[in-house]
Specification:
It is elongated and about 95 Å long. The chain has 4 domains: 147 residues; 217 residues, Rossmann fold, CATH 3.40.50; 236 residues; 50 residues, no CATH class. Strand 9, helix 5 and strand 10 form a beta-alpha-beta unit. The strands form 6 sheets. Strands 1, 2, 3, 4, 5, 8, 9, 10, 11, 15, 16 and 17 form a 12-stranded mixed sheet that branches. It contains 20 helices and 26 strands. It is of the alpha/beta class and 701 residues long.
Length: 701
């Protein structure tokens, strides 16, 4: 069933304003769009603003009520019915009712069509979110009906957008930590915690990063450029600078950190002009959520942030048409993201959040304005904005990787590192060259490289990679043939998506070559093993990218592949061909590698090392300094360090599985006292593992 557009057009200007109505099947610009009905009459400003039984309904009174009235008031219901009545006066309601009836008759599992409101200036300032459909005995809030959800249509609508991403990137940006000087509990981190908790428990493929309050505009814009979020969520304050020659709306930032080169923190703002300029020239999110006062409020004074973002090409924006109560804003964000992460499309997630909020007694059902304050405006069909997919569940049971998915405890955070690893091999920017591999390294142990690798496996599986895992170590004598067989898959790991045997047919020649090489270990036989392994992978991958992981190079008390064996066969015959793309070797087309290295040193020193520096340099020599743009060649070297002290709270949330319990507070305080340095190691949390397991559960991963 097609979407429907209700288009209102001004037919007579001020002072005797009047508007006509049209109904269009389909989203503007999409195939099959056609005019469905034209209203026979216009409705007038006089009819719109006529007094109701509960009082005046002129524009100024209505806007004042929606922007300032916090108490239950019959006027909100009267506004909704008045908006219906003026639409009915045009004569289009029979056709609109027929569309709504057809939408209600769809099967429960069918996709829900959307009604888009295309509103002209002056009319778009009215709170159309209060629109109510008369039903014979009363009226139903149009924006709270799941069968026929409603959204506003933004400027320059377009069709043909596609969504091919498997993992949604989310960036949470606070404008300041303390949102209310009179209420110490009104913290931005509290709202952001609820959002992270919603995704943590949803089981969807998402990378959710929390940004510290940026110290200046350069820090914010650099963070946006790095993270390239699909969803940008801002929590803070927005104000109109009426002292300026040209009044302008701006988002406010109050960091406790000084900008680079400054001696003290400096309050700053992100103006409409700066916002528009940045997003016109840089990455644009698919959805921006502005939990900020007046961010969608139109008017003669200044352009709202919502409009500036839409003008800059952002497909969908959620803003507020009035000042937001902090508690309400927090509840809305929690419910909206829970609904979105559960798989609901954008317009239905809005309905779910509005409805759930209207059930809270303090918001007096729909007799108060709170549920109608969020405004969703889109430039593209809602189903083309974004969607979440379920994360790979099998990896949580993998014998090798399941420890990082155990809750509570174990692996924490590292979202930005996971984004870096995934982005190196599957770039965020469409058409950008992908690197052929990544080397994860550190100078010390205990920073969690193995955990990072195991947790990142699910990100690659979610993005349709064939993932294979092996190590250079083992209890018995180890050779490059053992590594290739481990990548091929072992029967003992039949349930593991990264260790289970690949289909047998493509590897018949490989299995025969392995038998021959084990019977007679000659250079020719081993070379045939490598050749048939690559041929088998090419057949088995079926055009999917392959990630070959080498998880450990050295281990105390274990045997490992000798340096000579590694260099002669794995390095020369496999890793170096993978690292080179000019010209690309068809035998390794689509293959990538991830190497996990603890410590390394030059081969001339003779010191113990996971992996010698000579080999590292050979596979990563084509990669310039990290501050420069990386070419689609070579291996990127990612250095993993300790976790910053400022990330302690968010990491502890994940460590405790977001459990709300007094014991969590005590453990958090104890761990905070333990961390005296600017950074800490994830392994330091192990001492709290047993205590955390005794805390009542809050939900599953």
């Amino acid at each position: 069933m097609q979407d429907l557009v209700l288009k209102l057009t001004e037919s007579s200007p001020d002072p005797a304003r009047a508007w006509t109505a049209e109904l269009w099947d389909g989203f503007p610009g999409c195939p099959g769009t056609a005019r469905r009905a034209v209203g026979r009459r216009a409705f007038t400003q006089q009819a719109l603003e006529a007094d109701s039984a509960s009082g005046a309904l002129d524009r100024d009174t209505v806007l004042d009520k929606i922007r300032t009235e916090d108490l239950a008031d019959q006027i909100f219901g009267d506004i909704g019915v008045r908006l219906y009545d003026v639409l009915d006066a045009t004569g289009i309601m029979p056709e609109l009712d027929a569309w709504r009836a057809a939408a209600r008759a769809l099967p429960e599992t069918a996709a829900r069509p959307c009604l888009y409101l295309d509103l002209p200036p002056w009319l778009d300032e009215w709170p159309w979110e209060l629109l109510a459909w008369r039903n014979g005995t009363g009226a139903d809030a149009a924006f709270m009906l799941d069968r026929t959800p409603v959204a506003r249509l933004g400027p320059h609508p377009s069709c043909g957008w596609t969504w091919s991403e498997r993992t949604v990137r989310v960036l949470l940006v606070p404008g300041q930590e303390h949102l209310d000087a009179t209420d110490g509990s009104a913290l931005a981190s509290a709202e952001l915690r609820l959002i992270r908790k919603a995704f943590h428990q949803a089981g969807v493929s998402a990378l959710v990063e929390r940004c510290e309050v940026p110290a200046d505009i350069d820090e914010l814009e650099q963070r946006l450029a790095e993270a390239r979020p699909h969803i940008l969520h801002f929590i803070g304050h927005g104000e109109i600078d009426t002292a300026a020659q040209q009044p302008e709306f701006a988002l406010q930032f109050r960091s406790t950190r000084a900008p680079r080169g400054a001696g003290a923190p400096v309050p700053w703002e992100w103006s409409i002009t700066q916002i528009r300029q940045f997003f016109l020239n840089n990455w644009r999110p698919r959805l921006v959520v502005l939990n900020a006062c007046h961010s969608a409020q139109g008017g003669e004074q200044a352009t709202p942030v919502l409009e500036a973002l839409l003008d800059a090409g952002v497909p969908a924006v959620i803003g507020a048409q009035a000042a937001l109560d902090i508690t309400y804003a927090r509840r809305f964000a929690e419910r909206f993201y829970e609904a979105l992460a559960s798989g609901l499309p954008l317009h239905r997630a809005m309905v779910r959040a509005r409805h759930l909020l209207s059930t809270f007694p303090q918001y007096a059902g729909n007799r108060r304005r709170h549920w109608a304050l969020p405004v969703l405006t889109v430039r593209v069909p809602v189903e083309q904005v974004l969607r979440f997919t379920r994360a790979n569940a099998a990896i949580t049971q993998c014998e090798i990787a399941r420890e990082v998915y155990a809750r509570p405890g174990r692996f924490v955070n590292r979202t930005s590192d996971r984004r870096t690893l995934l982005g190196a091999l599957r770039p965020a920017e469409e058409g950008a060259p992908a690197l052929r591999g990544v080397i994860v390294e550190s100078d010390i142990s205990g920073v969690g490289k193995d955990w990072l690798m195991k947790r990142s496996v699910r990100d690659f599986l979610d993005n349709d990679f064939v993932v294979r895992h092996a190590t250079l170590v083992g209890p018995q004598a180890r050779s490059s043939i053992d590594v290739l067989q481990e990548w091929r898959g072992l029967p003992s790991y039949a349930a593991s998506p990264m260790c289970a045997p690949l289909p047998a047919a493509p590897f018949v020649a490989f299995d025969e070559a392995v038998k021959a090489a084990r019977a007679e270990r000659t250079a020719r036989n081993i070379e045939e093993v490598v050749r048939t392994f690559k041929a088998g992978l090419q057949e088995a991958r079926r055009n999917r990218p392959v990630l070959l992981i080498l998880g450990r190079f050295r281990s105390l008390g274990q045997n490992w592949v000798t340096s000579e064996d590694f260099r002669e066969h794995l390095l020369e015959k496999l890793l170096l061909p993978i690292a080179s793309v000019e010209p690309e070797d068809p035998e390794v087309s689509g293959l990538h590698a991830l190497l996990v290295v603890r410590q390394h040193s030059g081969v001339e020193t003779g010191q113990p090392a996971d992996f010698d520096e000579f080999a590292l340099q050979r596979v990563s020599a084509a990669v310039p300094d990290e501050s420069r743009r990386l070419p689609g060649e070579g291996f990127r070297r990612v250095r993993v360090a300790g976790i910053r002290k400022t990330e302690l709270d968010s990491c502890f949330d994940e460590f405790t599985d977001f459990r709300d319990h007094p014991m969590v507070t005590h453990l958090r305080m104890a761990f905070t006292l333990m961390v005296q340095q600017d950074s800490w190691l994830p392994s330091e949390l192990n001492a709290f593992q047993d205590a955390v397991k005794k805390i009542p559960a809050a939900g599953a991963i």
